[in-house]
Design goal:
Strand content: 5-15%
Shape: elongated
Structural class: alpha+beta
Radius of gyration: 28 Å
Largest sheet: 4 strands, antiparallel
Distance between the termini: 68 Å
Helix content: 40-55%
Length: 583
């Protein structure tokens, strides 16, 4: 590469102890001459907030930005105190002229350093630097999907619970990338990176087990992994997985074992299945080389997730599965094709919502025995989950004496969507367990409903409605108006992508503030439109979208601190645990 030496100034105009600014070719560079034979050049704009370093305080070779006390070694631009290095430039004397090397850096050679910097900045929680490193990586040609995977892997190695919502958001952002070409992709990528940093900053990396040679077949591997996880032998399970990955095993051999773990238990508000679905999709997009970091984190999450099917509130589910499990393979073999045969889905949805715990699992079993396709039942469950979100009593979200809130109910939708996708990945009857799990999960949230007389009406808006009307209602926190506008838009044939973009503008546009709330907004919106597409021309297709519209347009309490304080006081003083309406 040809070195681009550029005249900066005359030697006489930069005396010993002097400084000056060079501007040209898109650069603004501060030059310093602390000694006769020492001339240093760095970007004039402090990387912290852009104040001029030219006006800084110089002692020896350390330059201090006088606005926020960041300190830089002029010899190489290294940040001595603060968050981010400043770019330095080579200088030389050519006769009576000071020259600066303005050769553009080969960004591709910078990628390893930038990725290392990104990891460090995520660890420290320096979000401004994370955003700039992301922009530099994109400029260097690193695909946005790979940066998302890097953030998900940072979290997977450190998060207390294994993979977290950061990984799920990273997978969800893949759908948004076509809307954000080139450097604009910083915005969707940062949604995942911010959450990864909040979840896992300053945590140590989890120790990795030594790889263990896997058995000969995927079936034997699944049996061994299931045994290790079921008996909480985490180190052995981790070693077995790492051995399979080291042997070159890919998705088709490994994912079935994870799905089996998700059918064995209903894990942590459905997160076991949700994360499994998204983790493998992220690996497909970003590259399998991230699997040896991401999948052990997923395994940790699945292994230690709460087995909610063992809770008293899901006793009806546990008893039913214990009785029907021997029949599941035969039942699945006898199911019809999707869309074939008569089925009263309305009655099914009503039973899941309002017939109690026994009635909800009854409804699934009856549909299966009638030969209704599993995919059709899953779509019915998506409708039921949407209806439950539409019914949510928003006053509960503001009641510090109640443990549940909006986020609890959004899980119903995202889990139902993941169930539908899992049905296509599991070939045997164990997939039907997920239908029972979803129905029981939806039913359990019934105490969070508005009373029947108070439930919001779902009617289209009157008159000419456009996307700006929906955006205005969302920003005004007017849920009734927002739902009516969205209903009218979809009924009038407005492209669903335009409605989705308006909804995603709420979390992407900083109208929500807590990363965990933003994560749920993004993933629930994606699930809603996934279900909308799956339901096609069905009259109920709009319900998942309208449900997420109602949530996003409702006033949000994002801090939760008053609730935590009350729960702590009650627990410590009165030995009273948090009050959960769902048990």
């Amino acid at each position: 590469m040809t070195v681009l030496w550029t005249r900066a100034c005359s030697v006489d105009s930069l005396p010993v102890g002097g400084r000056r600014i060079f501007k040209g070719d898109g650069h603004q560079i501060a030059l310093f001459r602390p000694e006769r034979d020492a001339i240093y050049a760095v970007d004039n704009l402090c990387p912290h907030e852009g104040y001029p370093l030219y006006q800084g305080d110089l002692k020896d070779c350390v330059l201090t930005c006088i606005w926020h006390n960041y300190k830089f070694d002029l010899r190489d631009g290294h940040c001595v105190f603060g968050e981010e290095n400043v770019r330095s430039y080579r200088t030389r004397l050519a006769g009576d002229t000071v020259e600066i090397d303005l050769t553009p850096p080969d960004l591709s050679l910078e990628v390893p350093r930038l990725l290392e910097s990104l990891t460090n900045d995520l660890h420290q929680g320096y979000m401004g630097v994370v955003a700039r490193d992301t922009a530099r990586l994109l400029a260097a040609g690193v695909p946005a999907a790979e940066i998302l995977a890097h953030g998900a892997c940072f979290d997977a190695q450190r998060s207390e619970q294994g993979v977290s919502h950061a990984m799920a958001v990273a997978a969800d952002m893949l759908d948004l990338l076509p809307r954000f070409p080139g450097g604009e992709a910083v915005l969707p990528v940062m949604q995942a990176l911010e959450l990864a940093s909040e979840e896992s900053r300053r945590r140590r990396r989890r120790a990795a087990s030594d790889p263990v040679e896997p058995p000969a077949t995927a079936g034997e591997f699944s049996d061994l992994l299931f045994d290790r996880v079921e008996n909480e032998k985490w180190t052995e399970a981790d070693g077995l997985l790492r051995g399979a990955l080291a042997a070159g095993w890919k998705r088709n051999a490994i994912e079935p074992a994870f799905l089996r773990l998700c059918t064995a238990h209903f894990l942590s508000f459905g997160h076991g299945l949700i994360y499994t679905h998204k983790a493998f999709d992220l690996l497909e997009a970003a590259g399998w080389r991230y699997a040896d970091t991401l999948l052990p984190g997923l395994l940790f999450s699945v292994s230690w997730g709460t087995r909610e099917d063992l809770l008293p509130t899901l006793r009806a589910l546990r008893v039913r599965l214990g009785r029907i499990s021997p029949e599941l393979d035969a039942l699945r073999a006898g199911l019809g094709e999707p869309g074939s045969g008569a089925w009263d889905r309305g009655a099914f949805v009503s039973a899941v919502l309002d017939a109690g715990a026994e009635g909800a699992v009854d409804a699934v079993e009856q549909a299966l025995r009638a030969g209704v396709a599993a995919e059709d039942i899953a779509r019915g469950l998506s409708v039921a989950a949407a209806e439950r979100l539409l019914r949510f009593n928003e006053r509960l979200a503001r009641d510090t004496g109640v443990n549940e809130g909006w986020l609890d109910v959004t899980h119903l939708q995202t889990f139902a969507t993941s169930v539908r996708h899992a049905l296509a990945r599991i070939s045997d009857g164990s997939a039907l367990v997920l239908l029972f799990q979803s129905a029981a999960f939806i039913e359990r949230a019934a105490p969070l409903d508005h009373s029947e007389g108070e439930r919001p009406s779902i009617v289209p808006a009157e008159g000419a409605i456009g996307i700006p009307d929906l955006v205005q209602a969302l920003e005004a926190r007017d849920p009734d108006r927002a739902v009516a506008c969205a209903h009218q838009l979809l009924r009038n044939g407005i492209e669903a992508s335009q409605v989705r973009e308006a909804l995603e503008g709420i979390p992407l546009g900083d109208r929500l503030t807590r990363p965990i709330v933003i994560a749920h907004a993004l993933k629930t919106t994606r699930a809603a439109f996934d279900d909308y597409e799956a339901l096609g021309d069905d009259v109920d297709a709009v319900k998942p979208v309208l449900a997420v519209v109602r949530w996003l347009a409702s006033p949000q309490d994002e801090r939760f601190l008053a609730r935590l304080v009350r729960e702590a006081r009650d627990f410590v003083v009165a030995a009273r645990p948090p009050h959960r309406l769902t048990g």
